[in-house]
Amino acid sequence: MASYMKDKAGTLKRIENFIHDKHGFYDCCNLRGRLHPKRVPVIIRHHAAVGRVTYDEAIAGQYKPASVGDIFGPTWSTHWFKLDITIPKDWEGKEIWLLWNSQSEAMVWKDGKPIQGLSACPDDYLRTDFILTRSAAKNEFKQTLYIEMACNGLFGAGLRHIIRPPDLHKKFALTQAEIAIVDPMVYDLLVDMEVMLGLAKHLPEQSHRAYEAMLAANEMINIIEIGEPKTYERAKEKGASFFAKGNGDSQITIHAVGHSHIDSAWLWSYAETKRKCARSWSSSLLMMKDYPDFTFACSQAQQYQWMKEDYPSIYDDIKTYVARGQFIPVGGTWVEMDGNLPSGESFVRQFLYGQRYFRQEFDVTCREFWLPDTFGYAPQLPQIMSQSGISRFITQKMSWNKNKFPHHTFHWEGLDGTKVLTHFPPGDNYGMKGDVDEVMKTLNNCEDKGRIDNLLFLYGYGDGGGGPNPHMVEKLKRMHNTDGCPRVKFSSPDAMMSLIEEHESPKLCKWVGELYFETHQGTYTTQSQIKRENRKGEVLFHNLEFISTLALRTQSSSSLKSNAYVYPADDIERMWKLFLLNQFHDVLPGSSINEVNNDAIVYYKEIQEKGQALLNGAISAVFQDGKGPLVNIALNGLGWSRTEVVEVGRSDEPKTPKQKRKKMKTEVPQTGRKLALVTVPAYGAAKVDEETGTDVKEDIACNATVDKQTESIVLQNRLIEATVDKIGKVVSLKMKSNGRECIDGGCGNQFVLYTDRPASYDAWNVEHYHLETRKEVFEVIEAARIVEKSRLRVEIKVNLKISDSSNIIQNIVLDAESPYLRFNTEVAWHEDHKFLKVEFPVNCRSDVATYDTQYGFVRRPTHANTSWDWFKFEVCTHKWADLSEYNFGVAILNDCKYGFQTSENVMRLSLLKSPKAPDEVADMGNHTFTYAILPHENTFQDAGVIRNAANLNNPLIVKPINGVKESLLNVPFFQVDTDSIIIDTIKKSEDSDNAIIIRAYESFGGTCVATITTSLRFSCVHSCNMLEDVDPEEIRTPNKTSIAVDYKPFQVKTFKVKF
């Protein structure tokens, strides 16, 4: 009898070399080397395609002989291969695989259909085999396949590192092209021993079961004689006896769900993502035929739509396996969007279009919000989820936080008190490989031990796609009921979450408020142009849908049916979906390659051009009668009356005969712009003429004076007085009502430049140590001077030097009746790893600052008492941020920025970053943006900060009209009697031309009763959710023009108003 030495390390190494010798030293005598006992090459012919062509275009190409060792490229090109396969006659009855390695991604096509994806870059994401037949029959001896080779890896083609800009000249070598017999017994033994080795290495050090696994595998090696199949059978019996020992009732259940996280764009273009989806999803669909328990969860309705358009055979299979419960739509959104930057309405549309798609295509309403890879989660998401048919949330990104998050399964309570069941897979990964160490981490890392018995395990190659492979499934099958490890079960997110809801929910803890992500804060600023287009696009959609709805309702009773307005529903939906695509969590945050960013800008341009044309058409449909003179009207797309200065053209514009006869009482200052002060009702319009552009009274007129001693310029109107020095710094800002000085130390509007060299993730990150490199921008190219001085507007212009390559031109503007000082800013930005901010030290003390967020606001500390506080050194805001003490405060407003910091009393708005990876020209060029400072008495709510920020972002629209319908002017089409309620959206119902949707929310954080009034008489009103599913009970209304509603703090309510 053999004498065993207790050499654990040596025994483990022996097992490892026997099943997988990565250097190939022992392939001649180990089990791995016997997996493919026979191989033969295949005949290859090659066609270099022009772009990403269709199958029909590809097979019509000219094919030339090719062989292993040939080099193909460059990056992003496509090459097609025709494989003439001849299976040797003596292989009849054998399982045959195609082995293909082109060091790239590829797709196998057979009989005109995409069958399975292949990948070999990076090499730890290998999928280089395709099963030709499980048992070769004579009629299968001759086969023809096509392989579509994409000259990129799973993670694009970064130069020297995956997140660096692509190497556009990269070449890819064909290193393997052959068919091989597979020995199924050898394969089974390899899987058995791999799992046993994992248990031996990753069970607790002193675990009896770990040693049992090691010694059983070691004994199997002793039994096996390479090339002797009978010994394989005896070894298999030994392995079976080991796995036959089941685990106990106390073991938790790990729910294994296949997944392939595919970024809709990132280190590759949108166009390449379509092929990534096809490669990954076809592979999983193929596995479903062999593994009926195998499940695959897949999010993003946009990607499903791409398959429907470009790969109909894959889409047909998807529908089949969705019906069988194996292919599982999850998430309920159009794409996996960023979780911080989109507006509330953008979030709603993600769910609206996503859930409607899954309902229409698969008769499925997703119950789980699926967002595993975005960079933080806004506090109103629970309410938006809940009102979109979703009560559960799954992510894993919080595992990246510097402070370890205290839960993996918990109730997440949002801003309004809505709670959703939330699960973070404790494996801290959405792309696991089915290994024992991952299963054990899922068990041991769980922060809710004793409270929870069900955990999610997401496996499959992700980020660049690929998905699960049979080897992963086989490993997990061995762990279904094996002593020493948790019980692994092929399952679904719904099955797991249902068990938690039924048995474990009452024991779970609660987390209140935002899920703040403690890294990647640079994504609030990187790719400034994309963020600007996002904000401007959200405003455009808001105005377009309101005016188009108004046109539909005001024209619906027209007796001239041929001239009746047609609501552009299809155009708006198409534009929204394109816009939502750009909110993907690597596009809007700015963490994609240059090609993606260029595509996004093209999409934004298309949206703006089409949207503005539709908006102009809707305005004309509502207000123009074509019978009168040309007049200017101002439209207000917000739910309160506004008195503001507007521009109505230039003094050098040609005048109409009517204008020549009748002088407009408007201001024509030095700039040549004609200005008028106009009052416009809530969601309404007013004429800008002699009646609205009347002479400005002295008590509300603006003024600008120069202090000759200090060279400072004093700007003032009825409400505020600002003193600006020669470099554009605001040295003083006072409210006229109380004389309170708002600026501390005379340093407001100070531009500051920081060195920005993150330790990793250049475009994503900004590290806390950047704050140690502060440098003021103070060199003047052109000192501040008055460029406009009228009763309606005073304006200063200044030009500052950032460096020899970059400068700032800023116009500091104060309008009559404006409570804020506005900074219209242009920056020529050509820096390397620099971060530009503007700061306002204010005379205000508070340990919290308040920031705008979707449908409300969030408070964050101004100090760094704890590590949780400290890592909020850069936070996300939307239209405003406020620092207030009792009865006084200062707000900073902006029209397209998102990054902010309030440190003690210094408020800093982040303006521009300059990372070099993955886009080496990120943010280089010219930028235009506006911000403002608003001092106020009382609370920021009562002082109108929220409304003024909305005004800044959605200026009055001035449009010349050829004959105006006077009866529709000065009419508030929609308004509300309570200041805290904001009517955020007015649109046509998705399913009816005779109904509109009104969405309004409570913005102050308090309970109230509000009455929403419209000038459009309706027949009835119903509450509905954000998917526009209607509550059957009708809301009682005092009349047919108003809706009385109770609101709780930060509550969002949606109404379907029928006519």
Automatic annotation (TrEMBL):
Keywords: Glycosidase, Hydrolase, Metal-binding
A GO MF label: alpha-mannosidase activity
Protein name in the entry: alpha-mannosidase
Origin: domain of life: Eukaryota
Statement: the UniProt record of this protein carries the keyword Hydrolase: yes
Species: Owenia fusiformis (Polychaete worm)
Taxonomic lineage from the root: Eukaryota, Metazoa, Spiralia, Lophotrochozoa, Annelida
EC supergroup of this enzyme: hydrolase
Coiled coil: none
Pfam families linked to this entry: Alpha-mann_mid, Ams1-like_1st, Glyco_hydro38C2, Glyco_hydro_38C, Glyco_hydro_38N
Keyword Membrane: no
Family: Belongs to the glycosyl hydrolase 38 family.
GO biological process: mannose metabolic process; oligosaccharide catabolic process
SMART domains in the record: Alpha-mann_mid (SM00872)
Catalytic activity: Hydrolysis of terminal, non-reducing alpha-D-mannose residues in alpha-D-mannosides
Protein EC: 3.2.1.24
